[in-house]
Write a structure and sequence with these properties.
Rossmann fold; six-stranded mixed beta sheet; globular
């Protein structure tokens, strides 16, 4: 059952994680891998998807609706920002968008996880590159981390991050 709480549609749970990022970066794929729906047929998200994970509800908000993301910020206890690790043409836009999101009062000090989708590439992400590209070292008002993932790697690390930073 959905209930309205401020500007956020709230699913009954103790914590709310927002998963944001532009279109086709793997947000829905990541959401369903986190909740072990490995064989779920994926279609482009219209609006949002929500799944429960332990005491947490994770909202995967459609990338095509970035102008409406702010309506989901209230009551968020963490932010996961997903990027395509191989679409270098979008990195500057990702940086600007991420820092705009982080300036919102409702998200002040919520923990941030940047998830870099390796899209099947076996080499690890260049964490230093993404730290610099997104100016993560300049973020001082919250805990943040960066984790690379693909179909076979990184999912357990992301689950652990949620457990330790959201469900503490």
């Amino acid at each position: 059952m959905w209930t309205s709480m401020g500007s956020l549609w709230s699913y009954p749970s103790s914590h709310t994680v927002l998963m944001l990022g532009f279109e086709n970066v793997g947000k829905t794929y990541l959401l369903y891998r986190l909740v072990s729906k490995k064989n779920k047929v994926l279609t482009p998200t219209i609006g949002f998807n929500a799944e429960s994970f332990h005491k947490t509800t994770i909202f995967d908000v459609a990338g095509g609706f970035s102008n409406l993301w702010h309506t989901y910020y209230d009551n968020a206890t963490a932010l996961i920002y997903v990027v395509d690790g191989y679409d270098f043409s979008m990195q500057n836009e990702n940086k600007k968008t991420l820092h705009k999101i982080l300036k919102h009062d409702s998200l002040h000090s919520v923990p941030l996880l940047v998830c870099v989708n390796r899209k099947g590439q076996k080499e690890p992400i260049d964490e230093l590159y993404f730290r610099a590209a997104f100016r993560l070292d300049f973020i001082k008002n919250r805990k943040w981390d960066i984790i690379g993932f693909d179909s076979s790697d990184g999912i357990n690390e992301i689950r652990s991050w949620i457990r330790s930073n959201v469900e503490c």
